[in-house]
Specification:
The protein has three helices and nine strands. By secondary structure, the chain is of the alpha+beta class. The strands form two sheets. Strands 3, 4, 6, 8 and 9 form a five-stranded antiparallel sheet that branches. It has a four-stranded mixed sheet with strand order 1-5-7-2, sandwiched between helices. A hairpin with a 4-residue loop joins strand 8 (119-125) and strand 9.
C-alpha cells in the first residue's frame, strides 16, 4: 500500500492480498492513455502529498474491509513521477473468499481514490504543451463546491 516512484508490477499486488481463505482476486490496472479529450498525450506526470496520500489509501482500504468483510485483502499503489503512455499509474488488488465481494471492493477502492487521493496529474501533449488537470483540493470547500477526480 502506498505511493511509489518505481514501475508497478503484479507480484507485489499478489503477495499483498493472497491468503488460503481468499478464493477470488481482482486486479485493477489504471494505465496512461494516449488521448484525452481529443488531444494526443505522450506522458503524464503525477505528484502527491505523500503522507496524506498514504494515510488516505490506508483509510480507503480499511473502509473497504468494513463494507465487504474482514476477510477482504486490499492493496493499492499509486505511482508518481513522469509516466509514458501505457505505463501503470494506479494498481489495486482485492481478494476475498468469494468473487462478488472482491469485485465490489475493487470498484469501491478505485472510485474513492479518484475522489479523495491527494495526487495531481499533469498531461504532456503531442504539441509540446503541458497542462495540470483539476484535481483534489487540500482545502475544505463549502457544500457543493470544490473539485474532485485527481488521477
Amino acid at each position: 500500500m502506498g505511493i511509489v516512484d518505481e514501475p508497478l508490477g503484479p507480484a507485489k499486488l499478489w503477495e499483498a492480498v493472497e491468503a488460503p481463505d481468499r478464493g477470488a482476486q481482482v486486479q485493477f490496472w489504471g494505465l496512461v492513455r494516449n488521448l484525452h479529450e481529443g488531444r494526443g498525450v505522450v506522458a503524464v506526470t503525477y505528484d502527491a502529498f505523500r503522507p496524506l496520500a498514504e494515510a488516505t489509501l490506508q483509510a480507503i482500504a480499511e473502509e473497504a474491509q468494513a463494507r465487504f468483510g474482514p476477510d477482504l485483502g486490499v492493496a493499492a499503489f499509486h505511482r508518481v513521477g513522469r509516466l509514458k503512455v501505457g505505463e501503470a499509474s494506479v494498481v489495486i488488488a482485492t481478494a476475498a473468499p468469494h468473487r462478488d465481494a472482491a469485485y465490489q471492493a475493487s470498484r469501491y477502492v478505485i472510485e474513492q481514490i479518484k475522489v479523495r487521493l491527494p495526487v495531481w496529474k499533469q498531461e504532456h501533449y503531442l504539441d509540446g504543451r503541458s497542462v495540470w488537470l483539476p484535481g483534489h483540493s487540500l482545502l475544505k470547500t463549502p457544500a457543493g463546491g470544490g473539485q474532485s477526480g485527481c488521477s
